[in-house]
Amino acid sequence: MLVHLERLRPAGPGPPLAEVRTPYGPARARWRGDPAAPPGPYRVEWTVDEEHATVRPAPASAPAVRTEGGILLLTGEFDGAGELRTGDSLIALDLAAPPGWIEVAVPCTHAELYPYDL
Fold it and tell me: In terms of Cα–Cα distance, which of 24, 19, 17, 30 is closest to 2?
């Protein structure tokens, strides 16, 4: 997914917390790239710690990314076999959920962004 990194903030031990804008809304997650990365566009892969995630039916049949308090909410179409499609991005998940539109809620400190180059 292409995101725009707005800022990195210290988040206790571990990687900084990134504030990003995605095509589907704003988000916060741990940054697994350069801790001195400047603001700007980055292609990233998402990872979610499934042990800290909850799943519920999606409020709408449209991709969405948002943060409420310290919780990251990812809405997408789940294939039932381990992939959540949020727009053009696939997120591998080891969750028990039926196929269809779901919302995954996870604390921001248990979701990570891994920047990569093409």
Answer: 24
> Quick check: 27 and 73 in contact, CB under 8 A?
no
Cα–Cα dist 82/94, whole Å: 6
Instruction: Find out whether 40 and 20 touch, Cβ atoms under 8 Å.
Output: no
Contact (Cβ atoms closer than 8 angstroms) between residue 99 and residue 80: yes
Tokens of 27: 């988000």
List Cβ neighbours of 9 (8 Å cut-off, separation of 6 or more): 16, 17, 19
Q: Are 65 and 86 in contact (CB under 8 A)?
A: yes
For 55-94, the pLDDT digits (tens) are 999 989 999 999 999 999 999 999 988 999 998 889 988 8
Give the model's pLDDT for residue 12.
82
